[in-house]
Amino acid sequence: MTRLTLLSAGVAFTLAAAPALAQEGDFIIVQSTTSTEASGLYQHLLPIFQEEAGIEVRVVAVGTGQAINNAENCDGDVLLVHATAQEEAFVEAGFGVSREPLMYNDFVIVGPAADPAGVAGSTDVVDALTKIAESEAIFASRGDDSGTHSKELELWEVAGIDVAAVSGSWYRETGSGMGETLNTGIGMGGYVLTDRATWINYGNKGEYTVAVEGDEAMFNPYGIILVSPEHCENVKAEAGQTFIDWMLSDAGQQAIEDYKIDGQQLFFPDADESQS
Amino acid sequence: MQSFADAFGEAFRLIASFDADLRAIVFLSLQVSLSAVIVAAIIGLPLGAFLAVSRFPGRTAIVVAITALMGLPPVVVGLIVYLLLSNSGALGPLQLLYTPTAMIIAQSLLITPIIAALARQTIEDLNDEYHQQMTLFGLTSGQRLVTLLWEGRFSLMTALLAGFGRAIAEVGAVIIVGGNINHVTRVMTTTIALETAKGNLALALGLGIILVSIAIAVNSLVFALRGTAERAAYA
Amino acid sequence: MLDRTNTKALSATPVSGHNLKIERSGRLLLGVEQIVFGGDAVTAILGPNGAGKSMLIKTLAGLQKPDRGDVSWNGSTPSRDGYRKVGMLLQHPVLFRRSAIANVIYALKQAGQGTRDAQALAHEALDQAGLSAIADTSARLLSGGEKQRLAMARALALKPEILFLDEPTASLDPASTLRIEEMIGAAAKVGTIIVLVTHDMAQARRLSERVLLMHRGRIIEAGRTADFFDRPNTPEARAFAAGEILL
Question: Which of B53, B74, B82, B147 could disulfide-pair with B172, CB 3.0 to 4.6 Å?
Answer without folding.
Answer: B74
